[in-house]
């Protein structure tokens, strides 16, 4: 390992492989792995004013480069040879130059195609707490197709708000937050997108690629949407009016809130 002035902040549990460059004021937290010949740029590298930071449990692959000012989130994975130019969310897998999100660690992709089965089998219960996937009613004839869902039946609440997400560049990620109270139901009415649901312990990924597929995200579920197709349009029904105080936007804060709630439940 080489380090400019040796003024990086490296946790003693981190693993730094031979040939890695760690720049000035770089922060490397506990249980991080930096692969051979990886480059983590710091303050003053390329005239930068802020160093990179690698959060707990992240893995930086061999020959990868993380630019100054970039934060690589908790347990994120940077594939070998990648060039990371923007902050990486917790648990994300990124690769390429510039690096883009290609998946999430410890996240199985759920099989969500139940169309044609008996109606009783059309709701799938996720391993993520209280998350459900539904195949909505789909009616097709010569006049076209119709998809329908009923509130408080197929969609387990009455909405007070809806919003549409569209024209999302392929490399971009949406969501990356949880709600304290608000319930959401997601339907990709055109194109496709992937949704990751996370309850702080379990994670599962769903592909929404039909207006007859819906995903219910209860409160205290960390939700991420990515892999938007160029024509994708995501419709989201929400149980509450917009309230910025209802959002948890930091994954550390989310994990803390989940375990505080668990401890309270056990105490009761």
Helix content: under 10%
CATH third-tier fold name of the largest domain: Jelly Rolls
Structural class: mainly beta
Alpha-carbon distance between the two ends: 50 Å
The counted number of beta strands is 29
Tell me the series of helices and strands, N- to C-terminal.
EEEEEEEEEEEEEEEEEEEEEEEEEEEEEH
Mean pLDDT: 89
* Count of the domains: 2
Describe the structure in your own words.
By secondary structure, the protein is mainly β. It has 2 domains: 2-104, Hexapeptide repeat proteins (UDP N-Acetylglucosamine Acyltransferase, domain 1, 3 Solenoid); 108-267, Jelly Rolls (Sandwich), CATH 2.60.120.10. Helix content is 6%, strand content 39%. The chain has 1 helix and 29 strands. Strands 3-6-9-12-14-15 form a 6-stranded mixed sheet, with no helix packed on it. A hairpin with a 6-residue loop joins strand 17 and strand 18 (132-135). The protein is elongated and about 65 Å long. The N and C termini lie far apart (50 Å). The relative contact order is 0.12. The model is unreliable at 1-5 and 114-120 (pLDDT under 50).
Topology (SSEs and partners):
Layout: E1 2-3, E2 9-10, E3 15-16, E4 21-22, E5 27-28, E6 33-34, E7 39-40, E8 53-54, E9 59-60, E10 65-66, E11 71-72, E12 77-78, E13 83-84, E14 92-96, E15 99-104, E16 108-109, E17 123-125, E18 132-135, E19 137-141, E20 144-148, E21 161-166, E22 174-179, E23 184-190, E24 193-198, E25 203-208, E26 213-217, E27 222-226, E28 233-238, E29 247-248, H1 251-267
Parallel strand pairs: 1-4, 2-5, 3-6, 4-7, 5-8, 6-9, 7-10, 8-11, 9-12, 10-13, 12-14, 16-25
Antiparallel strand pairs: 14-15, 17-18, 18-26, 19-20, 21-28, 22-27, 22-29, 23-26, 23-28, 24-25, 24-27
């Amino acid at each position: 390992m080489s380090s400019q002035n040796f003024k990086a902040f490296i946790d003693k549990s981190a693993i730094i492989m031979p040939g890695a460059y760690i720049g000035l004021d770089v922060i490397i937290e506990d249980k991080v792995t930096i692969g051979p010949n990886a480059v983590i740029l710091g303050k003053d590298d390329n005239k930068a004013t802020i160093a990179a930071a690698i959060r707990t449990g992240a893995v930086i692959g061999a020959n990868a480069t993380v630019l100054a000012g970039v934060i690589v989130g908790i347990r994120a994975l940077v594939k070998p040879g990648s060039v990371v130019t923007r902050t990486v969310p917790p648990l994300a897998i990124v690769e390429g130059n510039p690096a883009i999100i290609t998946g999430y660690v410890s996240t199985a992709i759920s099989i969500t195609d139940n169309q044609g089965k008996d109606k009783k089998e059309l709701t799938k219960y996720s391993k993520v707490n209280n998350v459900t996937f539904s195949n909505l009613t789909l009616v097709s004839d010569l006049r076209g197709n119709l998809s329908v869902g009923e509130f408080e039946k197929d969609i387990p609440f009455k909405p007070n708000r809806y919003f549409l997400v569209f024209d999302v560049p392929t490399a971009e990620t949406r969501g990356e937050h949880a709600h304290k109270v608000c319930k959401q139901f997601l339907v990709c009415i055109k194109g496709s997108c992937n949704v990751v649901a996370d309850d702080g312990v379990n994670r599962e990924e769903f592909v929404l690629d039909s207006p007859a597929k819906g995903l219910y995200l209860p409160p205290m579920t960390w939700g991420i949407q990515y892999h938007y197709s160029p024509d994708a349009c995501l419709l989201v029904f929400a149980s509450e009016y917009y309230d910025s105080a209802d959002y948890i936007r930091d994954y550390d804060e989310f994990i803390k809130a989940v375990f505080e709630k668990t401890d309270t439940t056990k105490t009761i």
